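step=encode ok
step=design start
structure_in=
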């Protein structure tokens, strides 16, 4: 899909413009990027009007008029358009009003804004490049899904609007379009009474001409919204259908045909009539209106007789006409309350959108959502969305700048976590192994029958095999724990620093980041097998060391050697003498021949020989000997644990696959964490 977004340049960008191309009316607001002041509503009409009806008239001379000017300038030969905002996915270029009409209207509104704010946005007759535009679309619904939303912003780009947009490595996206419900909520956040209850649950009802968008906000929860195709235009259509019936009852042969023909949207009289009904409706349903009837005056082309009619509909008839529609709106409210948010608490009810001014809306909303919720209608509900769009746009661009700096900060994106992860992993594995091995030694000591060292080693090997299944989980736990520490000690501090830089007025206490999500490191079975072998080799060396210490305890070899006056041999003993037998003969105080004495074993040879003998499965150790074996291991377990820790750490440090997977997963996790945090604070920063 083609895109022509304007990537915000911090060296050039000065202004953010928010435009609400409403189905019934249009408004716009502007704010500076370099301060936190509320956006200014842009005067779009002569006489100071900040909203204009969404109307366009293409005159026969080629001039284009919008808003009230479209009404005053129209003639029979002109092309008059209203109610043309539709989901792009429901329009066809061959239909009128078509996508072309919507694009043309967008362009005319944008040009009007630039002219009205020429001192800021224009230099002579040229529009400056010192600003970007954000637009709004209805909440997500069947017609306004994500695809339609993107197609709608593409229409604005095609119309020549400088829509802001950018992506950062597919991690952060600035799209230049804001859901109307979010825009309304952000505008409401500027009110202290809204900010104070944001934690408890806020319901925003954006009642427009084409849709009713309802959104529920609760701190630390994702916003929930839904759109209903039940905007106030339905009232106008109901009244129009009533007029058809009324004309038919007049008995004039021409009039029913005229009214039926008006429903062809290619005839401007239909649009004119609906607009006249709309004006009458708004006056009839205004908050302070006490009128007892709705008056509608309209005219037809001169070829029809009569060409002008006035209709009066009494209040009780109006109530009957729209009774079915009001019930549909009530059912939509109930659907959202019961099925979408499940009766979550609503402490504040915000009504916005031009159609929310109809006096029955407040009563209906309170009857469904609860009178206990404080009602907060905006001062001018017609301007809420455009003001909120500008506010949201400014926040989004600053968040884009912030995200760009965060992603380019290697201190954050390349976590220094290998050393603590290796240390925690080695300590945990070593602690578990030494504990299990010690249990084996203790059981070996306490058994009632003589047993060999070989049997002890087999039991230890079995325990090691069981423990190896936990190595992967231990590494995962060490990874997640250290990532949490890294986020708390480094990432959060950097995040707060950037928030303070780009949003100096923002209350940093609100940045109470959530815990980083736990993630699995990609570790293969081969990695674990290698680690298991390292542990097994290390434990074998530890067992040999413990056995040497045990032999020293069982036989005071040093004293025996000294008492025999033996010299340390420097040559390898030859002659086929069985060293093992000679050692046992010596230790059992058997007499040595002179020849034996000359070749008596050294201290080291005695130990080596005894190791061989003790590791023979036929060598059974009695209770006293087994106790010495246990004591030898228990007395030195701290040394053995440290030895095992060092061996495991060395293995992890030299394993490139494990290292690369830990670093890659860490980078991905931090990247996603930054995205989640930016998205989370996006609704809170104004």
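sequence_out=
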């Amino acid at each position: 899909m083609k895109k022509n977004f304007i990537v915000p340049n911090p060296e050039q960008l000065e202004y953010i413009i928010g435009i609400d191309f409403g189905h019934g009316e249009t408004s716009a607001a502007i704010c500076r990027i370099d301060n936190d002041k509320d956006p200014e509503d842009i005067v779009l009409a002569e006489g100071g009007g900040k909203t204009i009806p969404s109307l366009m008239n293409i005159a026969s001379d080629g001039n284009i008029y919008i808003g009230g000017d479209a009404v005053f300038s129209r003639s029979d030969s002109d092309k008059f358009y209203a109610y043309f905002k539709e989901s792009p996915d429901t329009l066809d270029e061959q239909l009128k009003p078509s996508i072309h009409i919507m694009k043309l209207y967008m362009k005319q509104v944008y040009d009007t804004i630039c002219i009205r704010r020429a001192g800021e946005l224009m230099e002579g007759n040229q529009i400056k490049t010192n600003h970007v535009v954000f637009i709004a679309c209805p909440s997500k619904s069947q017609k306004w899904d994500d695809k339609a939303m993107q197609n709608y912003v593409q229409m604005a780009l095609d119309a020549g609007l400088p829509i802001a947009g950018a992506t950062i490595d597919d991690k952060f996206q600035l799209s230049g379009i804001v859901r109307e419900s979010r825009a309304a909520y952000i505008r409401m956040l500027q009110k202290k009474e809204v900010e104070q209850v944001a934690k408890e649950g806020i319901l925003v009802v954006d009642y427009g001409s084409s849709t009713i968008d309802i959104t529920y906000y609760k701190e630390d929860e994702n916003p929930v919204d839904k759109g209903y195709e039940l905007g106030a235009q339905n009232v106008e259509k109901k009244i129009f259908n009533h007029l058809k019936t009324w004309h038919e009852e007049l008995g004039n042969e021409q009039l029913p045909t005229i009214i039926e023909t008006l429903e062809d949207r290619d005839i401007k009289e239909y649009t004119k009539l609906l607009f006249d009904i709309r004006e009458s409706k708004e006056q009839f349903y205004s908050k302070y209106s006490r009128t007892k009837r709705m008056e509608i005056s309209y005219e037809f082309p001169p070829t029809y007789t009569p060409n002008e009619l006035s209709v009066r509909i009494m209040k009780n008839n109006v109530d009957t006409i729209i009774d079915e529609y009001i019930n549909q709106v009530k059912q939509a409210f109930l659907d959202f309350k019961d099925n979408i948010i499940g009766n979550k608490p609503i402490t504040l009810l915000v009504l916005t959108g031009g159609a929310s001014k109809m006096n029955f809306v407040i009563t209906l909303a309170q009857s469904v959502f609860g009178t206990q919720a404080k009602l907060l209608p905006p001062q001018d509900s017609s301007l809420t969305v455009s003001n909120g769009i500008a506010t949201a746009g400014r926040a989004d661009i600053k968040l884009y700048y912030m995200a760009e700096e965060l992603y380019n900060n290697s201190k954050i994106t390349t976590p220094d976590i290998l050393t603590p992860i290796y240390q925690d992993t080695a300590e945990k594995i070593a602690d578990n192994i030494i504990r299990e091995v010690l249990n084996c030694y203790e059981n070996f000591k306490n058994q009632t029958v003589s047993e060999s060292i070989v049997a002890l080693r087999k039991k230890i090997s079995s325990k090691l095999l069981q423990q190896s299944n936990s190595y992967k989980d231990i590494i995962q736990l060490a990874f997640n724990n250290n990532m949490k520490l890294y986020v708390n000690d480094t990432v959060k501090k950097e995040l707060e620093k950037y928030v303070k830089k780009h949003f100096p007025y923002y209350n940093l206490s609100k940045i109470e980041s959530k815990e980083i999500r736990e993630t699995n490191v990609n570790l293969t079975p081969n990695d674990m097998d290698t680690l298991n072998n390292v542990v097994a080799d290390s434990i074998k060396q530890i067992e040999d060391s413990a056995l040497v210490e045990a032999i020293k305890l069982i036989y005071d070899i040093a004293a025996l050697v000294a008492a025999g006056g033996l010299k340390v041999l420097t040559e390898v003993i030859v002659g086929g003498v069985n060293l093992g037998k000679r050692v046992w003969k010596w230790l059992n105080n058997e007499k040595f021949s002179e020849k034996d004495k000359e070749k008596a074993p050294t201290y080291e040879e005695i130990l080596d020989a005894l190791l061989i003998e003790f590791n023979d499965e036929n060598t059974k150790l009695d209770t006293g000997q087994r106790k010495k074996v246990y004591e030898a291991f228990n007395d030195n377990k701290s040394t053995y644990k440290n030895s095992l820790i060092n061996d495991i750490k060395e293995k992890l440090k030299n394993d490139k696959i494990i290292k690369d997977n830990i670093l890659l997963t860490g980078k991905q996790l931090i990247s996603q964490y930054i995205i989640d945090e930016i998205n989370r604070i996006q609704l809170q920063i104004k």
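step=design ok
step=annotate ok -> The longest strand covers residues 25-32.
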